[in-house]
Design a protein that fits this description.
The complex is a heterodimer of chains A (408) and B (187). With 408 residues, chain A is of the alpha/beta class. Chain A has 9 helices and 21 strands. In chain A, the strands form 6 sheets. In chain A, strands 1, 2, 3, 4, 5, 6 and 21 form a 7-stranded mixed β-sheet that branches. A 5-stranded parallel β-sheet of chain A has the order 8-17-9-10-13. Chain A has a 3-stranded antiparallel β-sheet with strand order 14-15-16, with no helix packed on it. The longest helix of chain A has 25 residues.
Chain lengths: 408, 187
Protein backbone atom coordinates (compact mmCIF):
# COMPACT_ATOMS: atom_id res chain seq x y z
CA UNK A 1 0.00 0.00 0.00
CA UNK A 2 1.29 3.45 -0.83
CA UNK A 3 2.00 5.81 2.06
CA UNK A 4 0.21 8.57 0.16
CA UNK A 5 -1.18 9.05 -3.28
CA UNK A 6 1.36 11.74 -4.03
CA UNK A 7 4.66 12.89 -2.61
CA UNK A 8 5.75 16.46 -3.22
CA UNK A 9 9.46 17.07 -2.89
CA UNK A 10 10.32 20.57 -1.72
CA UNK A 11 8.32 22.87 0.57
CA UNK A 12 8.86 26.14 -1.28
CA UNK A 13 6.32 28.19 -3.20
CA UNK A 14 5.77 25.45 -5.81
CA UNK A 15 5.53 22.49 -3.47
CA UNK A 16 3.15 24.31 -1.13
CA UNK A 17 1.02 25.57 -4.03
CA UNK A 18 0.75 21.99 -5.28
CA UNK A 19 -0.15 20.76 -1.80
CA UNK A 20 -2.99 23.28 -1.65
CA UNK A 21 -4.27 22.17 -5.06
CA UNK A 22 -4.16 18.49 -4.11
CA UNK A 23 -5.87 19.18 -0.77
CA UNK A 24 -8.68 20.97 -2.58
CA UNK A 25 -9.11 17.87 -4.74
CA UNK A 26 -8.99 15.58 -1.70
CA UNK A 27 -5.86 13.83 -3.00
CA UNK A 28 -3.81 12.63 -0.05
CA UNK A 29 -0.18 13.62 -0.17
CA UNK A 30 2.94 14.37 1.84
CA UNK A 31 5.34 17.27 1.32
CA UNK A 32 8.99 16.51 2.05
CA UNK A 33 11.73 19.03 2.61
CA UNK A 34 15.42 18.46 3.32
CA UNK A 35 15.24 21.31 5.86
CA UNK A 36 12.42 23.59 6.89
CA UNK A 37 9.72 25.24 4.82
CA UNK A 38 11.42 27.49 2.26
CA UNK A 39 14.83 26.04 3.02
CA UNK A 40 16.71 27.46 0.02
CA UNK A 41 15.33 30.93 0.90
CA UNK A 42 16.83 30.45 4.37
CA UNK A 43 20.21 28.98 3.61
CA UNK A 44 21.12 29.79 0.01
CA UNK A 45 20.55 33.55 -0.23
CA UNK A 46 22.84 36.43 0.64
CA UNK A 47 22.02 38.62 3.66
CA UNK A 48 20.95 41.82 1.93
CA UNK A 49 18.82 40.15 -0.74
CA UNK A 50 15.43 41.61 -1.47
CA UNK A 51 13.02 40.06 -3.94
CA UNK A 52 13.49 41.21 -7.54
CA UNK A 53 9.82 41.97 -7.90
CA UNK A 54 7.43 44.00 -5.73
CA UNK A 55 5.48 42.32 -2.94
CA UNK A 56 2.19 42.38 -4.83
CA UNK A 57 3.79 40.12 -7.45
CA UNK A 58 5.00 37.64 -4.85
CA UNK A 59 1.86 36.90 -2.92
CA UNK A 60 0.98 33.27 -2.49
CA UNK A 61 -2.70 32.48 -3.10
CA UNK A 62 -4.90 34.02 -0.41
CA UNK A 63 -2.05 36.00 1.18
CA UNK A 64 -1.80 39.77 1.49
CA UNK A 65 1.04 42.17 2.26
CA UNK A 66 0.91 45.46 4.12
CA UNK A 67 3.33 47.10 1.68
CA UNK A 68 2.37 45.86 -1.78
CA UNK A 69 4.90 48.09 -3.51
CA UNK A 70 7.83 47.17 -1.26
CA UNK A 71 10.37 44.43 -1.86
CA UNK A 72 10.48 41.59 0.67
CA UNK A 73 13.67 40.22 2.14
CA UNK A 74 14.09 36.47 1.83
CA UNK A 75 13.32 36.26 5.56
CA UNK A 76 9.97 37.97 4.98
CA UNK A 77 9.28 35.57 2.18
CA UNK A 78 10.04 32.55 4.38
CA UNK A 79 7.54 33.91 6.92
CA UNK A 80 4.96 34.16 4.15
CA UNK A 81 5.66 30.58 3.07
CA UNK A 82 5.25 29.38 6.67
CA UNK A 83 1.96 31.25 7.03
CA UNK A 84 0.78 29.81 3.72
CA UNK A 85 1.74 26.27 4.77
CA UNK A 86 -0.20 26.72 8.01
CA UNK A 87 -3.31 28.13 6.33
CA UNK A 88 -3.36 25.46 3.67
CA UNK A 89 -2.73 22.78 6.35
CA UNK A 90 0.01 21.18 4.30
CA UNK A 91 1.46 18.02 5.82
CA UNK A 92 5.14 18.90 5.61
CA UNK A 93 7.77 16.49 6.83
CA UNK A 94 10.76 18.67 7.48
CA UNK A 95 14.39 17.57 7.78
CA UNK A 96 13.68 14.71 5.42
CA UNK A 97 16.22 14.48 2.67
CA UNK A 98 15.30 12.49 -0.42
CA UNK A 99 18.26 10.48 -1.65
CA UNK A 100 16.82 8.47 -4.49
CA UNK A 101 13.54 7.92 -6.29
CA UNK A 102 12.96 4.67 -8.13
CA UNK A 103 9.97 3.27 -9.97
CA UNK A 104 8.74 -0.22 -9.38
CA UNK A 105 5.51 -1.84 -10.52
CA UNK A 106 3.77 1.44 -11.21
CA UNK A 107 4.69 2.88 -7.81
CA UNK A 108 7.39 5.34 -6.84
CA UNK A 109 9.81 4.41 -4.08
CA UNK A 110 11.04 7.57 -2.42
CA UNK A 111 14.18 6.72 -0.49
CA UNK A 112 14.72 9.28 2.28
CA UNK A 113 17.34 9.50 4.97
CA UNK A 114 14.48 8.60 7.34
CA UNK A 115 13.19 5.57 5.42
CA UNK A 116 11.32 4.65 2.26
CA UNK A 117 7.96 6.10 1.27
CA UNK A 118 5.75 4.67 -1.48
CA UNK A 119 3.47 6.79 -3.67
CA UNK A 120 1.62 6.62 -6.99
CA UNK A 121 2.78 10.05 -7.96
CA UNK A 122 5.79 12.28 -7.35
CA UNK A 123 5.91 16.05 -7.82
CA UNK A 124 9.39 17.56 -8.03
CA UNK A 125 9.37 21.06 -6.58
CA UNK A 126 13.00 21.44 -5.66
CA UNK A 127 13.59 24.57 -7.70
CA UNK A 128 15.10 25.72 -10.96
CA UNK A 129 18.27 26.96 -9.36
CA UNK A 130 19.46 24.40 -6.88
CA UNK A 131 22.84 23.70 -8.45
CA UNK A 132 25.34 26.46 -9.23
CA UNK A 133 27.29 25.86 -12.44
CA UNK A 134 30.81 27.18 -12.76
CA UNK A 135 32.81 27.18 -16.00
CA UNK A 136 35.04 24.21 -16.75
CA UNK A 137 38.14 26.35 -16.38
CA UNK A 138 37.32 27.37 -12.78
CA UNK A 139 39.85 24.84 -11.50
CA UNK A 140 42.57 26.55 -13.54
CA UNK A 141 42.33 29.69 -11.41
CA UNK A 142 45.39 30.23 -9.21
CA UNK A 143 45.03 28.71 -5.73
CA UNK A 144 45.34 32.14 -4.11
CA UNK A 145 42.08 33.29 -5.65
CA UNK A 146 39.08 32.68 -3.38
CA UNK A 147 36.18 31.31 -5.44
CA UNK A 148 32.58 31.38 -4.28
CA UNK A 149 29.13 30.72 -5.77
CA UNK A 150 26.17 32.99 -4.90
CA UNK A 151 24.39 30.31 -2.85
CA UNK A 152 27.34 30.31 -0.43
CA UNK A 153 27.97 34.06 -0.40
CA UNK A 154 26.44 36.05 2.48
CA UNK A 155 28.12 39.46 2.69
CA UNK A 156 31.15 41.42 1.43
CA UNK A 157 33.05 40.45 4.59
CA UNK A 158 33.05 36.83 3.34
CA UNK A 159 35.60 37.80 0.71
CA UNK A 160 39.26 38.63 1.26
CA UNK A 161 40.23 42.30 0.98
CA UNK A 162 41.04 43.44 -2.54
CA UNK A 163 39.33 43.54 -5.88
CA UNK A 164 36.49 41.15 -6.64
CA UNK A 165 35.83 39.72 -10.09
CA UNK A 166 32.10 39.07 -10.42
CA UNK A 167 31.46 36.73 -13.32
CA UNK A 168 27.99 37.04 -14.84
CA UNK A 169 25.64 40.00 -15.21
CA UNK A 170 22.24 38.51 -14.58
CA UNK A 171 20.20 39.74 -11.60
CA UNK A 172 22.51 37.96 -9.17
CA UNK A 173 25.78 39.18 -10.64
CA UNK A 174 24.75 42.82 -10.90
CA UNK A 175 23.31 42.87 -7.38
CA UNK A 176 26.43 41.37 -5.86
CA UNK A 177 28.66 43.74 -7.85
CA UNK A 178 26.52 46.65 -6.63
CA UNK A 179 26.66 45.54 -2.98
CA UNK A 180 30.42 44.97 -3.08
CA UNK A 181 31.05 48.33 -4.68
CA UNK A 182 28.92 50.12 -2.07
CA UNK A 183 30.99 48.30 0.56
CA UNK A 184 34.03 50.05 -0.90
CA UNK A 185 35.43 47.21 -2.97
CA UNK A 186 37.04 47.50 -6.36
CA UNK A 187 34.83 45.41 -8.59
CA UNK A 188 35.22 44.11 -12.13
CA UNK A 189 32.09 42.63 -13.67
CA UNK A 190 32.49 40.14 -16.52
CA UNK A 191 29.41 40.52 -18.69
CA UNK A 192 28.07 37.77 -20.92
CA UNK A 193 24.56 37.53 -22.33
CA UNK A 194 22.30 39.66 -20.21
CA UNK A 195 18.81 41.08 -20.02
CA UNK A 196 18.40 44.78 -19.36
CA UNK A 197 15.24 46.29 -17.90
CA UNK A 198 14.69 49.60 -16.10
CA UNK A 199 13.36 49.32 -12.55
CA UNK A 200 10.61 51.80 -13.38
CA UNK A 201 9.04 52.87 -16.67
CA UNK A 202 6.33 55.43 -17.27
CA UNK A 203 5.66 55.87 -13.58
CA UNK A 204 5.34 52.20 -12.64
CA UNK A 205 7.55 49.36 -11.53
CA UNK A 206 8.55 47.39 -14.63
CA UNK A 207 6.86 44.33 -13.12
CA UNK A 208 3.55 46.14 -13.48
CA UNK A 209 4.02 46.32 -17.25
CA UNK A 210 5.25 42.73 -17.49
CA UNK A 211 1.97 41.67 -15.86
CA UNK A 212 -0.31 44.17 -17.59
CA UNK A 213 0.90 43.45 -21.12
CA UNK A 214 0.43 39.73 -20.58
CA UNK A 215 4.03 38.95 -21.40
CA UNK A 216 4.39 36.81 -18.28
CA UNK A 217 1.33 34.79 -19.26
CA UNK A 218 2.70 33.82 -22.68
CA UNK A 219 2.45 30.07 -22.87
CA UNK A 220 4.96 27.69 -24.34
CA UNK A 221 2.66 27.23 -27.37
CA UNK A 222 2.85 30.92 -28.21
CA UNK A 223 6.61 30.93 -28.48
CA UNK A 224 8.61 30.88 -31.64
CA UNK A 225 11.69 29.32 -30.20
CA UNK A 226 11.22 27.61 -26.87
CA UNK A 227 14.83 26.55 -26.71
CA UNK A 228 15.86 30.17 -26.70
CA UNK A 229 13.27 31.17 -24.11
CA UNK A 230 14.40 28.40 -21.77
CA UNK A 231 17.78 30.04 -21.58
CA UNK A 232 16.24 33.31 -20.43
CA UNK A 233 18.48 35.07 -18.02
CA UNK A 234 17.10 36.92 -15.01
CA UNK A 235 16.91 40.64 -15.79
CA UNK A 236 19.30 43.20 -14.32
CA UNK A 237 16.97 44.29 -11.53
CA UNK A 238 17.25 44.70 -7.79
CA UNK A 239 14.55 45.03 -5.14
CA UNK A 240 14.38 48.74 -4.37
CA UNK A 241 14.61 51.94 -6.34
CA UNK A 242 18.07 51.62 -7.85
CA UNK A 243 18.77 50.64 -11.42
CA UNK A 244 21.53 48.10 -11.69
CA UNK A 245 22.13 48.10 -15.43
CA UNK A 246 25.63 48.52 -16.84
CA UNK A 247 25.31 52.31 -16.98
CA UNK A 248 24.31 52.50 -13.30
CA UNK A 249 27.05 50.11 -12.22
CA UNK A 250 29.73 51.96 -14.17
CA UNK A 251 28.58 55.23 -12.58
CA UNK A 252 29.42 53.64 -9.22
CA UNK A 253 32.92 52.85 -10.47
CA UNK A 254 32.44 49.20 -11.36
CA UNK A 255 34.61 48.17 -14.29
CA UNK A 256 32.84 46.16 -16.97
CA UNK A 257 34.59 43.68 -19.21
CA UNK A 258 33.42 41.03 -21.69
CA UNK A 259 32.40 37.50 -20.86
CA UNK A 260 35.09 35.60 -18.97
CA UNK A 261 36.19 33.27 -21.75
CA UNK A 262 39.11 31.48 -20.14
CA UNK A 263 41.57 31.51 -17.29
CA UNK A 264 45.00 30.32 -18.22
CA UNK A 265 48.59 30.95 -17.21
CA UNK A 266 47.37 33.04 -14.30
CA UNK A 267 45.41 35.38 -16.54
CA UNK A 268 41.70 35.90 -16.95
CA UNK A 269 40.79 36.36 -20.62
CA UNK A 270 37.66 38.29 -21.49
CA UNK A 271 35.69 38.22 -24.73
CA UNK A 272 35.93 41.17 -27.08
CA UNK A 273 32.23 40.87 -27.91
CA UNK A 274 30.88 43.05 -25.08
CA UNK A 275 29.62 45.83 -27.36
CA UNK A 276 27.54 43.33 -29.30
CA UNK A 277 25.93 41.91 -26.15
CA UNK A 278 25.16 45.38 -24.80
CA UNK A 279 23.57 46.39 -28.12
CA UNK A 280 21.53 43.19 -28.23
CA UNK A 281 20.32 43.78 -24.65
CA UNK A 282 19.33 47.37 -25.46
CA UNK A 283 17.42 46.19 -28.55
CA UNK A 284 15.53 43.56 -26.56
CA UNK A 285 14.72 46.04 -23.81
CA UNK A 286 13.32 48.49 -26.33
CA UNK A 287 11.23 45.76 -27.94
CA UNK A 288 9.51 45.17 -24.60
CA UNK A 289 9.14 48.91 -23.94
CA UNK A 290 7.68 49.35 -27.46
CA UNK A 291 5.17 46.65 -26.63
CA UNK A 292 4.39 48.42 -23.36
CA UNK A 293 3.86 51.76 -25.12
CA UNK A 294 1.56 50.11 -27.64
CA UNK A 295 -0.41 48.44 -24.85
CA UNK A 296 -0.75 51.73 -22.97
CA UNK A 297 -2.04 53.42 -26.11
CA UNK A 298 -4.44 50.62 -27.07
CA UNK A 299 -5.91 50.50 -23.62
CA UNK A 300 -6.12 54.24 -23.18
CA UNK A 301 -4.15 54.07 -19.96
CA UNK A 302 -3.02 57.38 -18.49
CA UNK A 303 0.71 57.20 -17.91
CA UNK A 304 3.61 59.64 -17.97
CA UNK A 305 5.40 59.89 -21.34
CA UNK A 306 7.94 57.24 -22.35
CA UNK A 307 11.17 57.64 -20.36
CA UNK A 308 13.51 55.35 -22.24
CA UNK A 309 16.80 54.49 -20.58
CA UNK A 310 19.93 55.85 -22.29
CA UNK A 311 21.81 53.43 -24.54
CA UNK A 312 24.36 51.33 -22.70
CA UNK A 313 27.63 53.24 -22.70
CA UNK A 314 30.76 51.14 -22.62
CA UNK A 315 34.39 52.04 -22.16
CA UNK A 316 36.16 52.53 -25.50
CA UNK A 317 38.57 49.77 -24.70
CA UNK A 318 37.25 47.23 -22.18
CA UNK A 319 40.04 45.09 -20.72
CA UNK A 320 40.59 41.81 -22.59
CA UNK A 321 42.69 40.28 -19.85
CA UNK A 322 43.54 40.71 -16.17
CA UNK A 323 46.26 39.10 -14.15
CA UNK A 324 45.06 36.73 -11.46
CA UNK A 325 48.51 36.56 -9.94
CA UNK A 326 49.48 40.17 -9.27
CA UNK A 327 47.48 40.32 -6.03
CA UNK A 328 44.91 42.85 -7.29
CA UNK A 329 42.01 40.48 -7.86
CA UNK A 330 41.70 38.35 -4.75
CA UNK A 331 38.35 36.66 -5.21
CA UNK A 332 35.89 35.54 -7.86
CA UNK A 333 32.12 35.18 -7.55
CA UNK A 334 30.69 32.75 -10.08
CA UNK A 335 27.29 34.32 -10.76
CA UNK A 336 27.29 32.32 -13.96
CA UNK A 337 24.46 29.88 -14.06
CA UNK A 338 22.17 27.79 -11.92
CA UNK A 339 20.55 24.55 -12.93
CA UNK A 340 17.95 22.31 -11.36
CA UNK A 341 19.20 19.16 -9.68
CA UNK A 342 17.28 16.01 -10.49
CA UNK A 343 20.05 13.58 -9.64
CA UNK A 344 17.74 11.84 -7.15
CA UNK A 345 15.75 10.39 -10.06
CA UNK A 346 16.91 6.85 -10.67
CA UNK A 347 14.89 6.27 -13.83
CA UNK A 348 15.24 6.92 -17.56
CA UNK A 349 13.59 10.33 -17.77
CA UNK A 350 16.49 12.42 -19.13
CA UNK A 351 17.51 13.42 -22.63
CA UNK A 352 20.92 12.94 -24.19
CA UNK A 353 22.22 16.08 -22.50
CA UNK A 354 20.95 15.03 -19.10
CA UNK A 355 17.93 17.34 -19.02
CA UNK A 356 14.68 16.15 -17.53
CA UNK A 357 12.21 15.53 -20.36
CA UNK A 358 8.75 16.91 -19.68
CA UNK A 359 5.82 18.42 -21.47
CA UNK A 360 4.53 21.35 -19.48
CA UNK A 361 5.68 19.70 -16.25
CA UNK A 362 4.28 16.27 -17.12
CA UNK A 363 7.22 13.86 -17.33
CA UNK A 364 7.41 10.88 -19.65
CA UNK A 365 7.19 8.54 -16.63
CA UNK A 366 3.48 8.40 -15.76
CA UNK A 367 2.85 9.95 -12.36
CA UNK A 368 6.00 12.09 -12.34
CA UNK A 369 5.61 15.86 -12.43
CA UNK A 370 7.93 18.83 -12.15
CA UNK A 371 7.21 22.45 -11.19
CA UNK A 372 9.01 25.78 -11.11
CA UNK A 373 11.27 25.51 -14.15
CA UNK A 374 11.72 28.41 -16.60
CA UNK A 375 8.88 28.40 -19.15
CA UNK A 376 7.50 25.14 -17.80
CA UNK A 377 4.08 26.17 -19.05
CA UNK A 378 4.25 29.96 -19.32
CA UNK A 379 6.77 32.75 -19.02
CA UNK A 380 6.05 33.25 -15.33
CA UNK A 381 6.47 29.57 -14.49
CA UNK A 382 9.66 30.06 -12.51
CA UNK A 383 8.45 33.25 -10.85
CA UNK A 384 6.80 33.05 -7.46
CA UNK A 385 3.64 34.29 -9.13
CA UNK A 386 3.83 31.40 -11.57
CA UNK A 387 3.49 28.64 -8.99
CA UNK A 388 -0.27 28.84 -8.51
CA UNK A 389 -1.41 28.44 -12.12
CA UNK A 390 1.09 25.72 -12.96
CA UNK A 391 0.25 23.80 -9.79
CA UNK A 392 -3.44 24.01 -10.69
CA UNK A 393 -2.82 22.70 -14.21
CA UNK A 394 -0.66 19.84 -13.03
CA UNK A 395 -3.04 18.96 -10.18
CA UNK A 396 -5.79 18.72 -12.83
CA UNK A 397 -3.63 16.36 -14.83
CA UNK A 398 -2.77 14.30 -11.77
CA UNK A 399 -6.44 14.09 -10.77
CA UNK A 400 -7.47 13.04 -14.29
CA UNK A 401 -4.97 10.18 -14.10
CA UNK A 402 -6.68 8.94 -10.92
CA UNK A 403 -10.07 9.10 -12.66
CA UNK A 404 -8.61 7.31 -15.66
CA UNK A 405 -7.35 4.52 -13.44
CA UNK A 406 -10.68 4.29 -11.60
CA UNK A 407 -12.52 4.05 -14.93
CA UNK A 408 -10.18 1.33 -16.18
CA UNK B 1 8.95 29.78 -39.09
CA UNK B 2 6.37 28.30 -41.42
CA UNK B 3 5.25 31.85 -42.01
CA UNK B 4 8.69 32.81 -43.28
CA UNK B 5 8.88 29.79 -45.56
CA UNK B 6 5.69 30.68 -47.37
CA UNK B 7 6.51 34.40 -47.64
CA UNK B 8 7.61 35.78 -51.01
CA UNK B 9 10.84 37.09 -49.50
CA UNK B 10 13.83 35.80 -51.43
CA UNK B 11 17.38 36.60 -50.41
CA UNK B 12 18.74 33.61 -52.30
CA UNK B 13 19.11 31.65 -49.06
CA UNK B 14 17.73 28.11 -49.07
CA UNK B 15 16.04 28.48 -45.72
CA UNK B 16 14.26 25.15 -45.87
CA UNK B 17 17.59 23.39 -46.35
CA UNK B 18 19.13 25.30 -43.44
CA UNK B 19 16.25 24.47 -41.14
CA UNK B 20 16.26 20.84 -42.24
CA UNK B 21 19.99 20.67 -41.57
CA UNK B 22 19.46 22.14 -38.12
CA UNK B 23 16.81 19.56 -37.30
CA UNK B 24 18.89 16.71 -38.69
CA UNK B 25 22.07 17.76 -36.87
CA UNK B 26 20.24 18.23 -33.59
CA UNK B 27 19.47 14.54 -33.65
CA UNK B 28 22.90 13.48 -34.94
CA UNK B 29 25.55 15.43 -33.00
CA UNK B 30 28.40 13.45 -34.61
CA UNK B 31 27.42 14.66 -38.06
CA UNK B 32 27.68 18.24 -36.82
CA UNK B 33 31.40 17.83 -36.13
CA UNK B 34 33.24 19.62 -38.94
CA UNK B 35 36.91 20.17 -39.63
CA UNK B 36 37.82 22.98 -41.99
CA UNK B 37 41.21 23.10 -43.67
CA UNK B 38 43.50 24.92 -45.95
CA UNK B 39 46.97 24.18 -47.18
CA UNK B 40 49.40 27.01 -47.72
CA UNK B 41 52.63 26.97 -49.63
CA UNK B 42 55.40 29.54 -49.60
CA UNK B 43 55.97 31.04 -53.02
CA UNK B 44 58.69 33.65 -52.58
CA UNK B 45 59.44 36.46 -50.17
CA UNK B 46 56.32 37.00 -48.09
CA UNK B 47 54.06 35.73 -50.87
CA UNK B 48 52.22 32.49 -50.18
CA UNK B 49 49.42 30.59 -51.86
CA UNK B 50 46.64 28.76 -50.05
CA UNK B 51 44.55 26.07 -51.67
CA UNK B 52 41.21 25.25 -50.14
CA UNK B 53 39.29 22.28 -51.42
CA UNK B 54 38.40 19.59 -48.91
CA UNK B 55 36.78 19.58 -45.50
CA UNK B 56 35.33 17.00 -43.16
CA UNK B 57 31.71 17.02 -42.05
CA UNK B 58 28.46 15.08 -41.94
CA UNK B 59 30.52 12.08 -40.91
CA UNK B 60 32.76 11.92 -43.97
CA UNK B 61 35.24 13.69 -46.24
CA UNK B 62 33.69 16.44 -48.34
CA UNK B 63 34.82 18.65 -51.21
CA UNK B 64 34.03 22.09 -52.52
CA UNK B 65 32.83 22.03 -56.14
CA UNK B 66 36.34 23.14 -57.07
CA UNK B 67 39.64 24.06 -55.48
CA UNK B 68 39.97 27.73 -54.53
CA UNK B 69 43.28 29.54 -54.52
CA UNK B 70 44.06 32.52 -52.32
CA UNK B 71 47.19 34.56 -52.80
CA UNK B 72 48.56 36.37 -49.78
CA UNK B 73 51.40 38.83 -49.88
CA UNK B 74 52.24 42.29 -48.60
CA UNK B 75 52.18 45.67 -50.37
CA UNK B 76 55.20 47.56 -51.74
CA UNK B 77 55.24 49.69 -48.60
CA UNK B 78 56.58 46.53 -46.94
CA UNK B 79 59.04 46.07 -49.81
CA UNK B 80 56.99 43.13 -50.98
CA UNK B 81 55.68 42.03 -54.35
CA UNK B 82 51.96 42.64 -53.61
CA UNK B 83 50.80 39.49 -55.36
CA UNK B 84 47.86 39.30 -52.98
CA UNK B 85 46.21 40.76 -49.92
CA UNK B 86 47.81 40.63 -46.49
CA UNK B 87 46.78 37.84 -44.14
CA UNK B 88 45.27 40.35 -41.71
CA UNK B 89 43.08 41.73 -44.47
CA UNK B 90 41.91 38.18 -45.12
CA UNK B 91 40.83 38.02 -41.49
CA UNK B 92 38.81 41.23 -41.90
CA UNK B 93 37.30 39.86 -45.08
CA UNK B 94 36.44 36.63 -43.29
CA UNK B 95 34.68 38.54 -40.53
CA UNK B 96 32.70 40.66 -42.99
CA UNK B 97 31.71 37.66 -45.10
CA UNK B 98 30.65 35.65 -42.08
CA UNK B 99 28.48 38.46 -40.68
CA UNK B 100 27.02 39.17 -44.13
CA UNK B 101 26.10 35.52 -44.66
CA UNK B 102 24.47 35.60 -41.24
CA UNK B 103 22.48 38.70 -42.10
CA UNK B 104 21.14 37.10 -45.28
CA UNK B 105 20.16 33.90 -43.48
CA UNK B 106 18.55 35.62 -40.53
CA UNK B 107 16.72 38.03 -42.84
CA UNK B 108 15.33 35.10 -44.82
CA UNK B 109 14.26 33.38 -41.60
CA UNK B 110 12.55 36.55 -40.38
CA UNK B 111 10.87 37.26 -43.71
CA UNK B 112 12.87 40.40 -44.42
CA UNK B 113 13.67 41.24 -48.05
CA UNK B 114 17.20 42.58 -48.45
CA UNK B 115 18.11 44.95 -51.30
CA UNK B 116 21.71 45.78 -50.48
CA UNK B 117 24.14 44.89 -47.74
CA UNK B 118 27.56 46.46 -47.61
CA UNK B 119 30.06 46.04 -44.83
CA UNK B 120 33.02 48.33 -44.30
CA UNK B 121 35.59 46.85 -41.99
CA UNK B 122 38.63 48.45 -40.43
CA UNK B 123 41.22 46.98 -38.13
CA UNK B 124 43.72 49.11 -36.24
CA UNK B 125 47.22 47.80 -35.73
CA UNK B 126 50.35 49.20 -34.15
CA UNK B 127 53.32 47.79 -36.09
CA UNK B 128 55.47 48.23 -33.00
CA UNK B 129 54.07 44.82 -32.05
CA UNK B 130 55.02 42.68 -35.06
CA UNK B 131 58.29 44.52 -35.56
CA UNK B 132 59.31 43.80 -31.99
CA UNK B 133 59.78 47.46 -31.15
CA UNK B 134 57.58 47.39 -28.05
CA UNK B 135 56.78 44.14 -26.28
CA UNK B 136 53.75 45.74 -24.61
CA UNK B 137 52.05 46.19 -27.97
CA UNK B 138 50.10 43.23 -29.25
CA UNK B 139 50.78 41.87 -32.71
CA UNK B 140 47.21 41.75 -33.84
CA UNK B 141 44.45 44.30 -34.17
CA UNK B 142 43.82 46.35 -31.09
CA UNK B 143 40.44 47.39 -32.46
CA UNK B 144 38.18 46.21 -35.25
CA UNK B 145 35.21 48.21 -36.50
CA UNK B 146 32.50 46.89 -38.79
CA UNK B 147 29.93 49.22 -40.26
CA UNK B 148 26.94 47.89 -42.19
CA UNK B 149 25.00 49.81 -44.77
CA UNK B 150 21.81 47.82 -45.28
CA UNK B 151 18.83 48.50 -47.49
CA UNK B 152 15.92 46.21 -46.69
CA UNK B 153 12.16 46.15 -46.29
CA UNK B 154 12.43 46.52 -42.54
CA UNK B 155 12.50 49.13 -39.78
CA UNK B 156 15.72 50.49 -38.38
CA UNK B 157 15.26 48.39 -35.23
CA UNK B 158 14.61 45.24 -37.25
CA UNK B 159 17.80 45.84 -39.20
CA UNK B 160 19.72 46.43 -35.96
CA UNK B 161 18.31 43.16 -34.63
CA UNK B 162 19.41 41.36 -37.82
CA UNK B 163 22.94 42.61 -37.35
CA UNK B 164 22.88 41.64 -33.65
CA UNK B 165 21.65 38.13 -34.41
CA UNK B 166 24.27 37.65 -37.11
CA UNK B 167 26.98 38.47 -34.55
CA UNK B 168 25.44 36.08 -32.07
CA UNK B 169 25.70 33.20 -34.54
CA UNK B 170 28.90 34.16 -36.31
CA UNK B 171 31.82 31.73 -36.22
CA UNK B 172 34.40 34.33 -37.23
CA UNK B 173 33.08 36.91 -34.74
CA UNK B 174 33.50 34.26 -32.04
CA UNK B 175 36.96 33.26 -33.29
CA UNK B 176 38.13 36.87 -33.16
CA UNK B 177 36.51 37.95 -29.91
CA UNK B 178 37.21 34.85 -27.81
CA UNK B 179 40.44 33.09 -27.05
CA UNK B 180 41.03 29.65 -28.55
CA UNK B 181 43.77 27.08 -28.37
CA UNK B 182 46.09 26.87 -31.35
CA UNK B 183 48.68 24.13 -31.74
CA UNK B 184 51.46 24.48 -34.29
CA UNK B 185 53.66 21.49 -35.01
CA UNK B 186 56.47 20.71 -37.42
CA UNK B 187 57.02 17.58 -39.50
Amino acid sequence: MPDAHAIIIGAGQCGLAMSRELTSRAIDHIVLDRGKVGQSWRSERWDSLRMLTPNWANLLPGMTHSEPDGYMTSGNFVAQLEAFAAVSKAEVRTNTRVERIAQRGGLFEVHCDTGVLIARSVVLATGAASRPIVPKFAHLMPDEIVQITPDKYRAPSDLPKGEVLVVGASATGVQLAHELRLAGRDVTLAVGNHVRLPRRYRGRDIEHWLHATGVLDQTTDELHDLGRALKLISPQLMGGRDDVDLNALQALGIKVVGRLAAARDGTALFSGGLAHLATAADLKMHRFLDLTDAWIEENGVIAPPPDRPAPTALPADPALSRSLEDGTIRSVIWATEFAPDFSILDMPVFDRRGRLVHNGGVCAMPGLYVLGLPFLRRRRSHHISGAAADARDLADHLASQIKGRAAA
Amino acid sequence: MTQAQTSPVDNGVDLAALLDARTALEGAPEAAQFTWRTSCEWVEGVHSRSIIESFFGLGEEQKHTKAFTIEADHPPQFSASDEGVTPVELVLSGLASCLTAGIASVAQNRGIQLHAVKASVEGDMDLAGILGIDSDVRNGFHAIRVNFDIRADATEDEIAALVAQSQKRSAVFDIITNPGNVTVTVG
